[in-house]
Amino acid sequence: MQARVQALREDWRNRLTGKPVDLLPYDAVAAVLKSYQHRQLTEVRAIPLDKIVGSVGRYKDFNRRFLPRRRSLAYRWARVEQAMDSSLGVPPIEVYQIGDVYFVLDGNHRVSVARANGFDTIDAYVTVVPVAADIEAGDSLDEAIIKAECAHFLAQTRLAEHCADLDIRFTKPNGYPRLLEHIYTHRHFMGLDAPQGEAPVSFPAAAANWYANVYLPIVAAIRRYGLEQRFPGQTPADLYVQVSARILEQSIQQGHRPETDAVVQELAAEAPSPLAAAMQNLARRLAAHTPFIRKAYRSSDSAVAPAADARPAFDEGEGPVQVHDIEKTG
Questions:
Q1: pLDDT given at position 186
Q2: What is residue 62's DSSP assignment?
Q3: Band (142; pLDDT cuts 50, 70, 90)
Q4: Cα dihedral angle (212, 213, 219, 223), rounded to 10 degrees?
Q5: 2-138+308-325: which CATH topology?
Q6: How would you class 6 by CB atoms within 10 Å of its CB: exposed for 0-12, middle for 13-18, buried for 19 or more?
Q7: CA 279, 284, 289, 291 torsion-angle sign
Q8: Read out DSSP for 271-304?
Q9: What percent of the chain has pLDDT above 90?
Q10: What is the distance between the alpha carbons of residues 197 and 10, in angstroms, rounded to a whole number?
């Protein structure tokens, strides 16, 4: 199948250039958002194909442009293409919408065939997930998860409403959940210090107090001692997590809280040299690409279309597709 050969080439090229190659798994993003209040639209809408970035359950079967990766998809893919060209056509797909992007619930093959044939839009039944996650079509899985975590963090803390110059950005997932843990702890101690009988501190109020009295002073020390320059590629929020973890560790060991400046200076002294940092980064990139390169060399000779009368093995739970049953299998 020519589409599969093209998928292999694209995966090779995109991995070498660092571009995302995989579809986004809906369940991973939805779990981070912690939002399950869906609003289903009953009318059919034409949605842009280039805004479909993920899938529910089949995100490994297709690459980011929905080209098929597995030989076993060839027969089904051809039948869906045949149905699209017929007078009957195919039914609308079903998708979840998060922000401006979509995840396929039913109709992965129809999306794949439509994109391969140069369509710009496809008809869909849309279920809207009402969250403010600014996920974009070119985001990697880590970037999508970070944005989902940020949306959940801001919804819980409402910091954007109280802090005009809010600047908390992470380069890796799980940063925002750690900050929520810090705020829960900070809120607990605020409650201990409050006069007896006073109303409990709200979580948004505790978040604003934590941001002003814990987060910003540590970030100020990070910038004062140039940690951003010593650890290129890391944001003040990334470094805040490291500094605060070290402060907690030393507090437990020493029985008292160390000075923030002393901890930051200690971390700065441990920073690798620019040459060592560059070598470590190169080693990480090579390690990430080597398994794929080996796999690509093994697969390149066999990445050819099956014979016209050959019917490859189907995925588990799948059988031959007829035009009338594409609705729940395409």
A1: 94
A2: B
A3: confident
A4: 100
A5: 3.90.1530
A6: middle
A7: positive
A8: PPPHHHHHHHHHHHHHHHHHHHHHHHHHHHTT--
A9: 33
A10: 64
